[in-house]
Design brief:
Elements: E1 8-18, E2 21-27, E3 38-41, E4 44-47, E5 57-62, H1 63-68, E6 79-84, E7 103-113, E8 116-124, E9 136-139, E10 142-145, E11 148-149, E12 156-163, H2 165-170, E13 181-186, H3 188-198
Antiparallel strand pairs: 1-2, 1-6, 2-5, 3-4, 3-6, 7-8, 7-13, 8-12, 9-10, 9-13, 11-12
C-alpha cells in the first residue's frame, strides 16, 4: 500500500523489451532496496528484482501491466515518480493508493494561477462514478485533490486539479506535454462502497 506522496524522482537507465514483457532499470536516490520490495513507479506497484544498496533498481513488467498502464511508452532517460510502500508508522499524508491502475488519462494542459497551476486531464467516462469534487485521485502515483469534474462527452470527461509549486517541481507533472498519458487510480474506498451497494 502507498500514500501517493512521491518520495523520489527516478530516471530510466535500462530498457529491455521482450515479446510479452519489459525489464526496467531505474536510477534514483532510493537506497537499501530489498529484493521483493514493492515500489510504486508512476503509480504502478512493481516488485524490486534484487537487493540494491545504491544504484539502479530492476523491475519486471508483465504483459498485463503493459496493456493497462503507460509503462510501455517509457524511453531511456524518462523521469518517473517513485514511492516505497508505507509502514505502520508512516504518516498517511495523501490517501490509500494500491498501485493498481484503473485506466489512463490524457493531459490537456495547464494555466498558471499565482504560484500554482490548474491542470486538466481527460479521463474515461467509466471512472466518473468513483470521483467527487474535493475527493482524491492518484495520477502517475501522485495523490491529488479533485477540484472540478466536467460532464461526460464522447466517452470521456475532464477533471481539474490545482497543483502547488512543490508538487509541480518534485514530481513528473511539470514535465508533461499536451496529449501525454498518465496512469489513473481512483479511490479504492469508492469502489468498495459501490460493490457493497450492489449486493444489497
Amino acid at each position: 500500500m502507498f500514500s501517493g506522496i512521491i518520495e523520489s524522482l527516478g530516471r530510466v537507465v535500462g530498457l529491455d523489451h521482450q515479446p510479452h514483457s519489459l525489464v526496467l532499470d531505474i536510477e534514483s536516490d532510493l537506497t537499501n532496496v530489498a529484493e521483493g520490495e514493492s515500489i510504486a513507479l508512476n503509480g504502478v506497484c512493481l516488485t524490486a528484482l534484487a537487493a540494491v544498496e545504491a544504484g539502479p533498481v530492476r523491475f519486471f513488467v508483465s504483459a498485463e501491466t503493459l496493456g493497462c498502464t503507460t509503462l510501455g511508452a517509457l524511453a531511456l532517460g524518462c523521469r518517473v515518480n517513485l514511492e516505497r510502500a508505507v509502514t505502520p508508522s508512516t504518516r498517511l499524508s495523501g490517501h490509500i493508493v494500491q498501485g493498481h491502475v484503473d485506466a489512463m488519462a490524457r493531459y490537456k494542459g495547464h494555466t498558471t494561477e499565482g504560484e500554482g497551476r490548474r491542470v486538466v486531464f481527460e479521463v474515461p467516462a467509466s471512472l466518473r462514478r468513483y470521483m467527487v469534487e474535493k475527493g482524491s485521485v492518484a495520477l502517475d502515483g501522485i495523490s491529488l485533490t479533485l477540484n472540478t469534474l466536467g460532464e461526460e462527452q464522447d466517452g470521456v470527461f475532464e477533471i481539474g486539479l490545482m497543483i502547488i509549486p512543490h508538487t509541480w517541481t518534485h514530481t513528473t507533472l511539470g514535465t508533461l506535454s499536451n496529449g501525454e498519458s498518465v496512469n489513473v487510480e481512483v479511490d479504492v474506498i469508492a469502489k468498495y462502497v459501490e460493490a457493497q451497494c450492489r449486493t444489497k
